[in-house]
Design a protein that fits this description.
single chain, about 400 residues, mainly alpha, 4-stranded mixed sheet, 16 helices, 4 strands, about 70% helix
Length: about 400
């Protein structure tokens, strides 16, 4: 304890800034979200099963083959049809989870029409990107049927990196308007921080995130020359002061400087490799179990719903691994902000404002299984411990 400063008491004081009913609402929202993981996987399985049992993909593939078209054309058309059908079948679920539920908890102000308009854009992009990736994987299956899964992990990692590079240029501007941080004390502080940490200061933006969400948030996106840090206008609408902004930008700079995107690409590539290995081994028995009539094996794109079902189940089981990978990066980014910006109270104030969509004090097991960010209570305590350590250092000086 430095000069009478108690990190535990300081953490409790920050969390107490929200009344008990606000914490209860956040807990209900967060824990309800855990169940969405299970129900989402079941919806994905159901949608894939409907498409599979309809036989429409087998009929389309047979029609294409009767015209002696090249295998890649069959893959594009069959996988494209599957992606469109499963996207449409999942639309009611997306409306519930991404619009109605967010509206119910006060986390979005957009209309259903606005949501559907953006869903049309993101859904179209998702279909194109998904079909492109899957066509590459099916080409691998045809050419290297025994080792495709090994190469597939690398393809996913590379594809992840390519999408990171392209997203800020071609995708994000379709949904939001990004403007450089305006002149004034905030921009001056950000520029100074950027120069001190080797981050291009012309890559820090404010965007109209309030179009989609009322969440207090910021993000880093892109890679190499397209990387940028973006602050939602919600931060300013909710009264973020300079210390908060510096702490949050420092966190996002941590992601940028420490190359977390590339690390995640490598780790997700390894997860994909493991998943593809299991798909290779499980496809035949699962196809028989599901009654996949007319599917001619793993290399047949008409059998992709079987692959999708396997991956949906594996993805659900791998949730703790995925969450841990992302959470570790968030811990490192918090640490970077504390070390290089030294705004522990600013970070704590910013974190408290995120409690409305992420309960502050889950059990350790719940955090491990379901949280892609560390619990706010733990993050605030980390900031207060840092503050205490710095006070001790200053006292020695």
């Amino acid at each position: 304890m430095a000069q009478g400063f108690d990190p535990a008491a300081a953490t409790a004081a920050y969390l107490a800034q929200l009344p008990p009913e606000a914490h209860a609402k956040a807990t209900a929202y967060t824990q309800g979200g855990h169940w969405l993981l299970l129900w989402g996987a079941l919806i994905a399985v159901a949608a894939a099963l409907i498409v599979l049992r309809s036989g429409v993909l087998v009929r389309l593939r047979a029609a294409i083959e009767s015209r002696k078209a090249r295998p890649w054309l069959a893959a594009v058309l069959v996988l494209g049809l599957d992606a469109v059908l499963e996207t449409l079948l999942g639309l009611p679920w997306n409306i519930y989870t991404d619009w109605w539920r967010e509206k119910f908890y006060g986390l979005t102000s957009r209309s259903l029409g606005g949501f559907l308009g953006e869903f049309a854009i993101t859904g179209t992009i998702s279909v194109v990107v998904t079909v492109g990736l899957l066509c590459l994987l099916y080409a691998l299956i045809r050419r290297t049927p025994r080792t495709w899964w090994l190469w597939g992990g690398g393809v996913v990692a590379v594809f992840f990196v390519v999408m990171l590079v392209l997203a800020p240029v071609f995708v994000e501007p379709l949904l939001n308007t990004y403007k450089p941080a305006p002149s004034g004390p905030v921009r001056d502080a950000i520029v100074q921080m950027a120069e001190a940490n080797g981050v291009p200061h012309d890559k820090i933006y404010v965007y109209d995130g309030s179009k989609q969400s009322n969440r207090y948030t910021a993000n880093v996106s892109g890679l190499f020359g397209t990387a940028r840090i973006a602050l939602s206008d919600v931060m300013f609408a909710k009264g973020a002061d300079l210390s908060e902004i510096k702490a949050v930008v420092g966190h996002e700079m941590g992601h940028y400087v420490e190359g977390h995107a590339l690390r995640m690409a490598a780790k997700f590539g390894l997860l994909a490799l493991a998943g593809f290995f299991l798909v290779d081994r499980l496809f035949a028995p699962v196809a028989r179990l599901l009654g996949a009539r007319g599917v001619q094996g793993l290399a047949d794109p008409a059998g992709f719903p079987v692959v999708g079902i396997i991956l949906a189940v594996l993805g659900l089981l791998a949730t703790p691994i995925y969450m841990t990978i992302v959470r570790q990066g968030e811990v490192a980014a918090d640490r970077y902000s504390l070390v290089h910006v030294n705004e522990p109270d600013g970070l704590a104030k910013a974190l408290v404002k995120t409690i409305e969509y992420r309960a502050a004090t889950p059990s350790k097991l719940e955090e491990t299984l379901f949280y892609d960010h560390p619990a706010v209570g733990n993050r605030v305590r980390m900031a207060m411990d840092w503050k205490a350590a710095q006070m001790k250092v200053d006292a020695v000086r």
